[in-house]
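Task: sequence design from structure.
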């Protein structure tokens, strides 16, 4: 999938914002753009269509973006960007905890939205290919769990575990660099790749990753905190 062919869903009740985003995206070459004005419409759209990227407002009529995001995650692992006037750190942390991959506040530069979309879609290209590239795939085996890069799958104790796109990209980065310590700034630059680094973003995604791969996230065996230095991924087969 080329990024210009990505199916994009814009969810916002402000038509001026929807029209501006559509205009900028079309100018940049995106040609498969859908829109919704409420959380309920967004959820129905995700039931009916497979999207590659979702731009989601928080303050919507009826169900809010925060209400709808975890419901969308039942149907889609596509990157979700919250685009909202709610700008507190608590709002941002809540957005990431509910399943978002990125968070931008209004007013915003639409060209930055496009830049973030392109960067994320480029990273997700292989993992979102139809059929998952099963032949000759790269699988990272950490004992309790395996990561199939081209299939875009996390398998924990033999079962596929749903993994939002940005969480999967963070895990994949660690898998490709086992036993190496990375601080928060390095992780943000290497995995997110845009803007000033955000410690909260990294910490929330570390927590979400541990919830999926650890027996007890409070006592991690695989994704270890190295005090004063950062984080590293190890095999960690201790019982």
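Answer:
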């Amino acid at each position: 999938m080329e990024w210009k062919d990505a199916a994009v869903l814009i969810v916002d009740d402000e038509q001026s914002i929807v029209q501006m985003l559509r205009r900028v995206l079309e100018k940049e070459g995106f040609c498969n753009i859908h829109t919704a004005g409420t959380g309920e419409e967004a959820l129905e759209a995700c039931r009916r269509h497979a999207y590659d990227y979702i731009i989601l407002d928080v303050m919507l009529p009826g169900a809010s973006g925060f209400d709808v995001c975890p419901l969308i995650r039942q149907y889609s692992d596509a990157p979700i960007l919250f685009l909202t006037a709610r700008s507190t750190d608590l709002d941002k942390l809540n957005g990431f905890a509910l399943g978002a991959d990125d968070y931008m506040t209004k007013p915003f530069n639409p060209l930055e939205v496009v830049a973030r979309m392109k960067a994320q879609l480029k990273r997700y290209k292989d993992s979102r290919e139809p059929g998952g590239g099963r032949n000759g795939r790269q699988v990272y085996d950490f004992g309790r769990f395996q990561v199939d890069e081209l299939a875009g799958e996390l398998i924990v104790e033999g079962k596929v575990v749903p993994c939002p796109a940005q969480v999967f990209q963070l895990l994949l980065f660690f898998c490709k660099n086992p036993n190496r310590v990375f601080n928060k700034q390095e992780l943000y630059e290497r995995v997110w790749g845009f803007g000033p680094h955000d410690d909260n973003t990294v910490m929330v995604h570390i927590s979400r990753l541990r919830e999926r791969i650890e027996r007890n996230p409070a006592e991690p065996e695989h994704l270890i905190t190295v005090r004063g230095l950062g984080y590293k991924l190890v095999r960690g087969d201790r019982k």
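Helices lie at 15-27, 39-48, 65-72, 89-97, 110-124, 165-176, 184-192, 199-213.
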